Amino acid sequence: MEVKNFVKKNKAFCLFALLALLIILTAIFAPVVTGGVSPTDSVLKDALQAPSARHIFGTDKLGRDIFTRVIYGARTSLTASFAVVLIIFALGTVLGVLAGYFGGWVDAVIMRIADMMVSFPGMVFAMAIAGILGASVRNAVIAVSLVSWTKYARLARSLVLKIRNRDYVAAAVVTGSKTPYILTKYMIPNVIPTLVITAATDIGGMMLELAGLSFLGFGAKAPTPEWGLMLNEGRQFIQSAPWMMLYPGAAIFVVVVVFNLLGDALRDILDPRDE
Amino acid sequence: MKKFKKFTALLLSAVLAAGVMTGCGGSDGSDGGNSDAGTPANATPGNREGEVNQQAHETDRDTSGTRTMTFGIQNYGGGGIDPAKEINCAWNVSRYGVGECLFMFDNAMNIQPKLCDSYTVNDEHTEWVFHIRDGVKFSDGCDVTAEAVKASFARLFEAGPRGSSAPQKYLEAEAEITADNASGNVVIKTSKPYVDLTKNLAYPVMVILDVEHTTDYDHAAIGTGPYVATNFREEVGYTMVANEHYWGGDVPYASIELLYMGDASAKAMALQSGQLDLAENVTNISDLRDLQVDPQFTVTIASGVRTGLAHMNMAEGRLLSNKTLREAVLMALDDDTMCSITVGGLYTSGFSVLPSTLDYGYKNLTDPYAFDPDAAAKLLDDAGIVDTNGDGTRELDGKEVVLHYVTYPNRCLNDFAEAIQQQLTAIGIGVDLEIGDSAREWDSYQSGDFDINGSNWTTVGTGDPTEYLAAWCSTSGADYCGYKNAEYDALYDELNTTFDTAARRDIIQRMQQILIDDAAAIVHGYYNSSMISRNETVGGAAIHTADYYWITTEIYPAS
C-alpha cells in the first residue's frame, strides 16, 4: 500500500526511475540483448551496410554491428559517468565539509585550489589533463573528475557554514563530542540531500562531457564501443552512412534526457520547496 | 510551466525512442538486398586500377587573365615555403606554383627540362654541366643567371642540412659548384658518381629561389613559378597572384585563393556548395564517390608512387624480431578487402614495398604470405606461440603478444590500423593502437618506440627508389626498424654503384623479394592521389603522378 501511494504521489520519478533501470539492465545484460555478438567482431566485407534485418542499426566502416556497439556502449558510458559522479560527490563533499567546518587555513587552501580549478573553462582543462595522461576511458574519468569536484566542495562548504555556528553544534562541542562525531552526526547529514540531488542531475551532464572527450579523441580508444567515439567514427560518413552517427547520437540523447529528468524528479521529492 | 517542460522532454524522448524503433522496423526487408550482397552500397569490390584517370576536364578557355579561383588544400608544414626549413615546406613551394627546379618529373616519372634546357655529363658521372634556359626571370623581374642558381644552392646548403630538408641527400655537400653567367652554365663536380643527378635536382628541395632579394623565406620566397605567394594567413591560406614575369607564357589566373582545409568532408562539402573551384585529395571515399558521379565535377585519380605501409620493429628483444610472428601477422591481413572496402579503393592493394605500377618487376615477385587467417593461427600454434593463460592473447617467451601500433590519421592510415587491429585480435595477437599526429609517428619511428609504425611514403621521390629502400639497409643509417639481412645490404651497396638501368631494375627486384620473404613490412597498398575540379569554372586540372605539382599553368579558367 505504501509503495502504491508512493508511486501515485511520484509518478514522474517512478517512470524515469523505471526507464533508468531499463537502461542499466540493458547495459548489464548486453550479451543477452545482442544475442552473444561481440561489439568488436568485424566482417570487413560487410562495411557500411544500411540498417536491415541482419543489422538493425547497420554496420560501421569495419563491418561491426552498430546495434551491438550501441548496447555495449551503454556499459562504457554508464560505468564511466557513475564513476565520475561518485568520485566528485565523495571528494567534493569531504573537502567541502572540512573547509566549512574548520575554516582558517584549511578552508583557504581547499577553496583556493577550487578557485584555481574553476578559473579555466572546464572542458578545455579536462582536454588538457586527458591529453597529458593519454587517451583512455580511465584517464577521461580522472580528467572530468578533477575539473568537476569543485562544485560539490563549494556547495558542501556553504551548507556547513549555515549550521556551523548553530547552538546545537556549540552544545555538542561543549558537551565533549569529538570532531569526527560532529562531522558525521551533524554536518554530513545536513549536506547530503542537496548533494545527492546535484549528483543525480549531474549524471547526464557528465555523460555528455565524457562523450565529448571521446569524440575529440581524448577518451575511449578504438575499438572500445563508446558513443562519443562512435560519433567521431561516423563523422566522415555523415552524408553516405548517416546511421553511423544517428544511433549513437540517439543513444546519448535518450540516456541523458532520462537521467536529467530522473534527477529533476528526485529533486522534487527530496527538496519540495521549489514546487 | 515546469510540468509543461517536463512533459515536452518526456514527449521528445518518447518520440525519439519510437523513431529508433521505427528505423529498425522500416529497414527490415527492404534493405535485404544490400546485406545479401555482402558489400556496402557504395563500395566496389576489387581494386580501382580501372578508375585511375589523369585526364583533365577540357573546356573553352577564358584568356582575359582577370579570373580568380579558390583551391582547398591540406596544410602541411604550417604553410611555410622555405625549402631549407623542412621537407614539407619544400614541397609547398613547388605545389603552390611559386618555385621551380632545374628539371621536373612527368607522369611517367621521367625527367623533363625546366629551368635547365640542356646538360652534359662525363663518363664517370662526376662532372655535370647544366645550361640555364635563357630568358627565365624570377617573379621580382631579376634574371635567373648561372650565378643566381649557384647562390640558391649555396643558401640551401647553408640553411638546410640540419633540418628534414637535408639537401645533402640529393647533392653531396662537398660538391664543387661553379657558375659562368656568360655561357649560362652551372658546373657541378662531385666526389662520388651520381647515377642521374638530374632526378635529384628535380626534387622540390632543390628549387631555385632568388636569394639575393628574398627577405621572407617562410611566406614570400621569390621563385620562378607562375604564381607569387602573398597575403599569408596562419591556418587560413595564401593569395597567389600571377607572376607578371613568368617565362613560360601567360599565367591563366589573376589570383588563386589557397584555403587550408584539413577535413576531407569539409573539402567535399565546400566543393558541393560552390565555395571551392578545386580541391586536392579528398581522402574520404564516400565523399569522393559522390563527387565522381556528380556531372558538375571532374575527379582525376593518379595511381601514385606512394606506398601505405607499416614498418615492423625487428630489433633484438622486440616481439616482431620473431619471424614466425611476422609471417603470421602478414597472413592474418586481408589486404584486398582493406584496400577495396575499408578505404574504398583509395589504395591499390599489393604485397611489395614498391608500387605495382612502377617498372621494378612486381609481376615477377611472389608472395608466400597470402591472406589465410587459419594458416596464420596454425603457424603460431605450431611455433608454441599460444595463449596459455586464457586471456585471449597469445604469449611469446612468457610475454603477452601485444603489439604497440603507432600511426596518424592521414591518407586512411588510421582506417588500416583499426582494421589490422581487428584482424590480429582475431588470431590472438593484441594491438595497443596509438593514433597521434605525424610528428609523434615520426618520433616513434626514429626512436624505435613501436612494434608497428604505419605511414605513407613516397617511393621514388627522386625518380628512383634507392633512398626509399635504404630504410631496410642496416648500413645505410636510415634503418630504424632493426632489419638486418647481409644479402640485402650487399645489393643496396651494389645499387649505389650500378648505372645500367636494366641491371638496377634487376637488383631492385631482388631486394623487394628479400623483403617479402623476410616478412619485413606490412604493405597496405599503393595510394591513389586525387584532384577534383568544378567543370563550370575550371579546366585542365589533373593530379600529377608526382604529388609535388598542384598549381600549374595547365589549370585555366573556363569561359
Written description of the protein model:
The complex is a heterodimer of chains A (275) and B (559). Chain A has 275 residues and is mainly alpha-helical. Chain A has one domain (12-35, 58-274): MetI-like (MetI-like fold, Orthogonal Bundle). Chain A has helices at 2-9, 11-28, 30-33, 66-102, 104-118, 122-133, 137-164, 167-174, 179-215, 227-235, 243-270. In chain A, helix 4 (66-102) runs parallel beside helix 7. Chain A starts with a helix and ends in a 5-residue tail after the last helix. Chain B is α+β, with helices and mostly antiparallel strands and 559 residues long. Among the domains of chain B are: 80-218, Dipeptide-binding Protein, Domain 1 (Dipeptide-binding Protein, domain 1), CATH 3.90.76.10; 304-528, Dipeptide-binding Protein, domain 3. Helix content of chain B is 30%, strand content 21%. Chain B has helices at residues 2-27, 32-37, 87-95, 146-159, 197-201, 217-220, 264-272, 285-293, 323-331, 335-342, 373-382, 413-426, 438-447, 466-469, 486-496, 501-517; strands at residues 68-73, 103-105, 111-113, 116-121, 127-132, 176-180, 185-189, 227-233, 237-242, 255-260, 278-280, 297-312, 347-348, 395-396, 399-400, 402-407, 430-435, 452-458, 521-534, 538-539, 556-557. In chain B, the strands form 5 sheets. In chain B, strands 1, 8, 9, 10, 11, 12, 13, 16, 17, 18 and 19 form an 11-stranded mixed β-sheet that branches. In chain B, strands 4-5-7-6 form a 4-stranded antiparallel β-sheet, covered by helices on one side. The longest helix of chain B is centred in the N-terminal third of the chain and has 26 residues, at 2-27. The model of chain B is unreliable at 1-49 (pLDDT under 50). Chains A and B meet through helix 11 of A and helix 1, helix 2, helix 7, helix 8 and helix 10 of B.
